[in-house]
């Protein structure tokens, strides 16, 4: 069975805006939103309508192209054009500081603009369009390569535990951590996927369960606090997770709760694998202590996806978006370059 999924972000036919699947509405509704202004683009990332580190990188590249078209029309000279583009890149980077693909894509687009500054505005804008498309197409190829590497780590019939969402919705086409399962399924292999719901925004239950079940994979949803039990029962042969940022020493930032799963996997002697493109690796970040963790709106814990509040309105909440898994707990980090085993050194 071949699983087809539209890319979560793409340019409109008139290239004036981005069409993105609003991931906050899944799985009940599949709806595209049109994003054209800087405020709309920032809000789409901040509100998790567009999410997943590689997907955010693709989105950011298209956003830079679209805004460059606008700036080229209103700028008096190249210097003011570039300053506006730089200001927009800095603004968009604040929407999700932990996602290194965001800043990576923005810097790459800025560099493309800088390298063409002696040319006409039309030429600069076209160079940015081509660069954005290249980033998107490269990610598609990267995900398939990662999926093939990951498939070599598991066997037909294995039970795989997943966390958050690292499928096509978070990247493009196959995804990263879900790629081996989807690719293996296309080849006729059978897996048992155990999907952690991933509180508080339920990316596991809303998105991963949606993607895997649509791909024809035997999918079982569990609450996050059930992971130890299914490991104890021998149902899990490996844990597959994605990444928002990987430090030079292999410390990995991902959706909060990933660290706890890594500890459990070590306790039960289960391999713990991280899947990401090399663009998610930040060689300027020495270790996990340098990775900033965003604290999100406490109402995500108390009211998001509930018909009525599940906690007193006055109670305090602590809602970090991510945590950092130490490299010593990671069995391997899988990228398009291959399967990287400890000790990690991505300098």
Q: Helices and strands, in N-to-C order?
A: EEEHHHHHEHEHEHEEEHEEHEEE
Q: On the 0-100 scale, what is the average pLDDT?
A: 95
Rg estimate, integer Å: 20 Å
Number of helices: 10
CATH homologous superfamily identity of the largest domain: Translation initiation factor eif-2b, domain 2
Low-pLDDT parts are none
Beta-strand percentage range: 15-25%
Task: Please name the CATH topology of the largest domain.
Answer: Rossmann fold
Number of domains: 2
Shape summary: globular
Largest sheet: 7 strands, mixed
What class, by secondary structure content?
A: alpha/beta
Number of strands: 14
- Reading off the top of the CATH hierarchy, the class of the largest domain is best stated as Alpha Beta
The CATH architecture of the largest domain comes to: 3-Layer(aba) Sandwich
Regarding quaternary structure, what we see is single chain
Distance between the termini: 40 Å
- Biggest β-sheet: strands ordered side by side in the sheet: 6-5-4-7-10-13-14
The share of residues in helices is: 25-40%
Give a summary of the structure in a few sentences:
The protein has 347 residues and is an alpha/beta fold.
Question: How would you portray this structure in words?
Answer:
The chain is an alpha/beta fold and 347 residues long. It folds into two domains: 9-143, translation initiation factor eif-2b, domain 1 (Four Helix Bundle (Hemerythrin (Met), subunit A)); 149-340, Translation initiation factor eif-2b, domain 2 (Rossmann fold, 3-Layer(aba) Sandwich). It is 39% helix and 15% strand. It contains ten helices and 14 strands. It has helices at 38-46, 53-74, 78-93, 100-115, 121-151, 179-186, 203-214, 227-232, 258-267, 299-302; strands at 9-11, 18-21, 32-35, 159-162, 192-196, 218-222, 238-241, 245-247, 252-255, 272-275, 281-282, 322-325, 332-335, 338-340. The protein has a seven-stranded mixed beta sheet, sandwiched between helices. It has a four-stranded mixed beta sheet with strand order 11-8-9-12, with helices on one face. A three-stranded antiparallel beta sheet has the order 1-2-3. Strand 13 and strand 14 (338-340) form a beta hairpin. The chain is globular, with a radius of gyration of 20 Å.
């Amino acid at each position: 069975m071949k699983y087809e999924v539209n890319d979560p972000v793409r340019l409109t036919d008139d290239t004036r805006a981005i069409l993105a699947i609003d991931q906050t509405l899944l799985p009940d509704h599949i709806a595209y939103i049109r994003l054209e202004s800087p405020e709309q683009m920032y809000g789409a990332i901040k509100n998790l309508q567009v999410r997943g580190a590689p997907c955010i990188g693709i989105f950011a590249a298209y956003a830079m192209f679209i805004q460059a078209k606008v700036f080229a029309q209103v700028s008096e000279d190249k210097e003011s054009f570039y300053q506006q583009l730089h200001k927009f890149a800095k603004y968009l980077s604040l929407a999700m500081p932990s996602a290194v693909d965001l800043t990576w894509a923005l810097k790459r687009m800025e560099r493309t603009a800088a390298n063409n500054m002696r040319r006409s505005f039309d030429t600069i804008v076209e160079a940015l369009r081509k660069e954005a498309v290249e980033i998107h197409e490269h990610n598609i190829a990267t995900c398939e390569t990662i999926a093939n590497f990951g498939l070599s780590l598991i066997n037909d019939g294995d039970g795989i535990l997943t966390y958050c969402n690292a499928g096509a919705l978070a990247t493009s086409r196959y995804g990263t951590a879900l790629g081996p399962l989807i690719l293996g399924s296309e080849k006729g292999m059978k897996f048992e996927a155990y999907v952690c719901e991933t509180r508080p925004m339920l990316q596991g239950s809303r998105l991963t369960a949606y993607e895997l079940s649509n791909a024809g994979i035997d999918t079982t949803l569990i609450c996050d606090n059930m992971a130890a039990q299914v490991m104890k029962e021998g149902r899990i042969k490996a844990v597959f997770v994605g990444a928002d940022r990987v430090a030079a020493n292999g410390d990995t930032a991902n959706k909060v709760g990933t660290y706890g799963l890594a500890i459990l996997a070590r306790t039960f002697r289960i391999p713990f694998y991280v899947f990401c493109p090399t663009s998610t690796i930040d060689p300027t970040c020495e270790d996990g202590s340098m990775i900033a963790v965003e604290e999100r709106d406490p109402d995500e814990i108390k009211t998001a996806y509930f018909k009525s509040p599940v906690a007193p309105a006055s109670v305090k909440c602590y809602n970090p978006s991510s945590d950092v898994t130490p490299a010593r707990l990671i069995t391997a980090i899988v990228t398009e370059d291959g399967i990287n085993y400890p000790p990690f050194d991505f300098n």
